[in-house]
Amino acid sequence: MPPEAFVLFKTQTSHEQQVYIELRDHHLVAETHALYGEFDLVARVTSASQKELTQLLLTGFRQIEGVKETQTLIVVDY
Fold this sequence. Notes:
- The structure is a single chain.
- 26% of the residues lie in helices and 36% in strands.
- It is an alpha+beta fold.
- The model has no long low-confidence stretch (mean pLDDT 94).
């Protein structure tokens, strides 16, 4: 199973749509959804390697303008 994660995003006020579009257009993001509640967006991320996923999570998402906070949920297989 290729590395996969769900990433929850809190955005700065009025940046939700801009962040959504950047996530939607990213080649490693399989799905993006807007949310009501504590978090503003969720993205399902898949990658070819653990290293690629780690790089995206540690640097890629943090550089998107308007991202205030993230929480990552790594998918495991039983």
